Amino acid sequence: MNTLYVGNMAHETTEADLKAAFSSFGEVVSAKVMSDRRGRTKQFGFVEMADEASARLAMDGLRGTPVNGRIMDIVLEKRAKGSGGRGRPGQQR
């Protein structure tokens, strides 16, 4: 439960950019920019922090801060324990 969804990213934002932006708030376990089959960014990604406190600090600290000219949307991902998927609450599979 330490994963942050990061949206509204600039096309040129890389995983290294995400890691650099989030690392001042704690240990970044992973940073992933999602892309389509052609390798173009989908303008969102995920950052996993080592602990929930760091994730919340990063979310609050980066709110309103531009990275590569765009202000990112950052949300702490909520997953049901044992669900194994990224489904939203109430969503049927």
**Overall pLDDT, averaged?**
87
Overall 3D form: globular
Roughly what percent helix? 10-25%
The main pleated sheet reads as:
4 strands, antiparallel
Q: Specify the structural class.
A: alpha+beta
Distance between the termini: 21 Å
Proportion of strand residues: 25-35%
Output the number of helix runs: 2
- Order of strands side by side in the largest beta sheet? 2-3-1-6
Spell out the helices and strands N to C: EHEEHEEE
Rg: 13 Å
Uncertain parts:
87-93
Number of DSSP E strands: 6
Verbal overview:
- It is a single chain.
- This protein is α+β, with helices and mostly antiparallel strands and 93 residues long.
- 22% of the residues lie in helices and 32% in strands.
- The protein contains 2 helices and 6 strands, in the order βαββαβββ.
- It has helices at 15-23, 52-62; strands spanning 3-7, 28-35, 41-49, 66-67, 70-71, 73-76.
- The strands form 2 sheets. A 4-stranded antiparallel sheet has the order 2-3-1-6. Strands 4-5 form a two-stranded antiparallel sheet.
- β4 and β5 (70-71) form a beta hairpin.
- The longest helix has 11 residues, at 52-62.
- The model is unreliable at 87-93 (pLDDT under 50).
